[in-house]
Specification:
The protein is mainly α. The two termini are 62 Å apart. It has two domains: 78 residues, no CATH class; 80 residues, no CATH class.
Length: 164
Protein backbone atom coordinates (compact mmCIF):
# COMPACT_ATOMS: atom_id res chain seq x y z
CA UNK A 1 0.00 0.00 0.00
CA UNK A 2 2.87 2.37 0.77
CA UNK A 3 4.27 1.99 -2.76
CA UNK A 4 0.93 3.03 -4.26
CA UNK A 5 0.84 6.17 -2.09
CA UNK A 6 4.44 7.02 -2.99
CA UNK A 7 3.68 6.55 -6.70
CA UNK A 8 0.61 8.79 -6.46
CA UNK A 9 2.58 11.51 -4.67
CA UNK A 10 5.35 11.24 -7.24
CA UNK A 11 2.85 11.62 -10.11
CA UNK A 12 1.23 14.62 -8.39
CA UNK A 13 4.56 16.34 -7.80
CA UNK A 14 5.64 15.61 -11.39
CA UNK A 15 2.40 17.13 -12.68
CA UNK A 16 2.96 20.18 -10.48
CA UNK A 17 6.50 20.55 -11.84
CA UNK A 18 5.28 20.31 -15.41
CA UNK A 19 2.75 23.10 -14.74
CA UNK A 20 5.58 25.22 -13.29
CA UNK A 21 3.94 25.40 -9.86
CA UNK A 22 7.40 25.01 -8.44
CA UNK A 23 9.76 27.98 -8.68
CA UNK A 24 12.81 28.06 -10.94
CA UNK A 25 15.70 26.37 -9.18
CA UNK A 26 19.40 26.92 -9.71
CA UNK A 27 21.28 23.63 -10.27
CA UNK A 28 22.13 21.83 -7.04
CA UNK A 29 19.84 23.95 -4.87
CA UNK A 30 17.04 22.46 -2.78
CA UNK A 31 13.53 22.90 -4.14
CA UNK A 32 11.16 25.03 -2.08
CA UNK A 33 7.44 25.26 -2.50
CA UNK A 34 6.09 28.44 -4.05
CA UNK A 35 2.77 30.13 -3.32
CA UNK A 36 1.10 28.07 -6.07
CA UNK A 37 1.84 24.68 -4.50
CA UNK A 38 1.88 25.04 -0.73
CA UNK A 39 2.38 22.55 2.05
CA UNK A 40 -1.37 22.44 2.60
CA UNK A 41 -1.85 21.74 -1.11
CA UNK A 42 0.54 18.81 -0.86
CA UNK A 43 -1.29 17.61 2.26
CA UNK A 44 -4.54 17.88 0.30
CA UNK A 45 -3.09 15.41 -2.17
CA UNK A 46 -2.35 13.01 0.68
CA UNK A 47 -5.78 13.45 2.29
CA UNK A 48 -7.61 12.89 -0.97
CA UNK A 49 -5.91 9.49 -1.28
CA UNK A 50 -7.91 7.86 1.50
CA UNK A 51 -7.65 4.11 1.98
CA UNK A 52 -9.96 2.11 -0.25
CA UNK A 53 -10.06 -1.55 0.87
CA UNK A 54 -10.20 -4.15 -1.87
CA UNK A 55 -13.07 -6.41 -0.82
CA UNK A 56 -16.76 -6.88 -1.39
CA UNK A 57 -19.37 -7.58 1.24
CA UNK A 58 -20.53 -11.04 0.31
CA UNK A 59 -23.27 -13.07 1.96
CA UNK A 60 -20.64 -15.37 3.49
CA UNK A 61 -18.71 -12.41 4.97
CA UNK A 62 -21.91 -10.90 6.32
CA UNK A 63 -22.93 -14.24 7.85
CA UNK A 64 -19.56 -14.50 9.62
CA UNK A 65 -19.86 -10.96 10.99
CA UNK A 66 -23.37 -11.73 12.28
CA UNK A 67 -22.13 -14.96 13.88
CA UNK A 68 -19.30 -13.07 15.62
CA UNK A 69 -21.76 -10.46 16.89
CA UNK A 70 -24.10 -13.17 18.21
CA UNK A 71 -21.24 -14.97 20.00
CA UNK A 72 -20.04 -11.70 21.50
CA UNK A 73 -23.51 -10.99 22.90
CA UNK A 74 -23.74 -14.51 24.28
CA UNK A 75 -20.39 -14.17 26.04
CA UNK A 76 -21.29 -10.76 27.47
CA UNK A 77 -24.63 -12.07 28.72
CA UNK A 78 -23.13 -15.19 30.33
CA UNK A 79 -22.76 -15.07 34.09
CA UNK A 80 -20.99 -17.39 36.44
CA UNK A 81 -23.48 -19.32 38.51
CA UNK A 82 -23.44 -18.08 42.11
CA UNK A 83 -22.78 -21.52 43.69
CA UNK A 84 -19.53 -21.76 41.67
CA UNK A 85 -18.04 -18.47 42.86
CA UNK A 86 -16.79 -19.64 46.31
CA UNK A 87 -15.19 -22.74 44.79
CA UNK A 88 -13.49 -20.63 42.11
CA UNK A 89 -12.27 -18.16 44.72
CA UNK A 90 -10.89 -20.94 46.90
CA UNK A 91 -9.08 -22.56 43.98
CA UNK A 92 -7.65 -19.22 42.85
CA UNK A 93 -6.52 -18.38 46.39
CA UNK A 94 -4.79 -21.78 46.66
CA UNK A 95 -3.04 -21.45 43.30
CA UNK A 96 -1.92 -17.88 44.07
CA UNK A 97 -0.56 -18.96 47.43
CA UNK A 98 1.31 -21.91 45.96
CA UNK A 99 2.81 -19.89 43.09
CA UNK A 100 3.87 -16.93 45.20
CA UNK A 101 5.40 -18.98 47.98
CA UNK A 102 7.10 -21.34 45.49
CA UNK A 103 8.82 -18.33 43.91
CA UNK A 104 10.21 -17.53 47.35
CA UNK A 105 11.54 -21.08 47.69
CA UNK A 106 8.73 -22.78 49.59
CA UNK A 107 8.99 -26.55 48.93
CA UNK A 108 5.27 -27.40 49.33
CA UNK A 109 3.41 -28.80 46.33
CA UNK A 110 0.02 -27.52 45.21
CA UNK A 111 -1.70 -30.48 46.91
CA UNK A 112 0.17 -29.81 50.14
CA UNK A 113 -0.86 -26.15 50.00
CA UNK A 114 -4.49 -27.29 49.58
CA UNK A 115 -4.09 -29.53 52.61
CA UNK A 116 -2.72 -26.63 54.69
CA UNK A 117 -5.68 -24.46 53.68
CA UNK A 118 -8.13 -27.18 54.66
CA UNK A 119 -6.36 -27.67 57.99
CA UNK A 120 -5.20 -31.21 57.28
CA UNK A 121 -1.93 -32.43 58.77
CA UNK A 122 0.99 -32.89 56.39
CA UNK A 123 3.67 -35.33 57.61
CA UNK A 124 7.39 -34.64 57.12
CA UNK A 125 7.03 -30.98 56.17
CA UNK A 126 9.01 -28.19 57.76
CA UNK A 127 6.97 -25.96 60.09
CA UNK A 128 8.47 -22.87 58.47
CA UNK A 129 7.03 -23.84 55.05
CA UNK A 130 3.59 -24.51 56.55
CA UNK A 131 3.69 -21.22 58.50
CA UNK A 132 4.64 -19.29 55.37
CA UNK A 133 1.64 -20.73 53.49
CA UNK A 134 -0.70 -20.15 56.43
CA UNK A 135 0.43 -16.51 56.71
CA UNK A 136 -0.02 -16.01 52.98
CA UNK A 137 -3.58 -17.33 53.20
CA UNK A 138 -4.21 -15.05 56.16
CA UNK A 139 -2.93 -12.04 54.21
CA UNK A 140 -5.13 -12.87 51.21
CA UNK A 141 -8.20 -13.23 53.39
CA UNK A 142 -7.44 -9.92 55.09
CA UNK A 143 -7.19 -8.19 51.71
CA UNK A 144 -10.46 -9.81 50.60
CA UNK A 145 -12.23 -8.46 53.69
CA UNK A 146 -10.79 -4.99 53.06
CA UNK A 147 -11.63 -4.96 49.34
CA UNK A 148 -14.73 -2.81 49.84
CA UNK A 149 -12.55 0.05 51.10
CA UNK A 150 -11.19 2.60 48.65
CA UNK A 151 -7.78 2.52 50.34
CA UNK A 152 -6.06 0.61 53.10
CA UNK A 153 -4.89 2.76 56.02
CA UNK A 154 -1.72 2.50 58.05
CA UNK A 155 -3.73 0.97 60.89
CA UNK A 156 -5.05 -1.69 58.49
CA UNK A 157 -1.48 -2.56 57.58
CA UNK A 158 -0.55 -2.83 61.23
CA UNK A 159 -3.49 -5.12 61.93
CA UNK A 160 -2.47 -7.29 58.97
CA UNK A 161 1.06 -7.47 60.35
CA UNK A 162 -0.28 -8.45 63.77
CA UNK A 163 -2.41 -11.24 62.29
CA UNK A 164 0.61 -12.83 60.66
Amino acid sequence: MGKKIAATISRSVSAALSRREWGEFPPGQPRHLTKNLTYTGLMGILVSMSYQPQFAITPALLARAERIAALRERILAATVQVPWIPALQKDTRTRNTHSSTAIEGNPLTLEQVRAVEEGREIPAVAQRAKREVTNYFSGLRFIETQSSKKSISHEDGLSLRASL
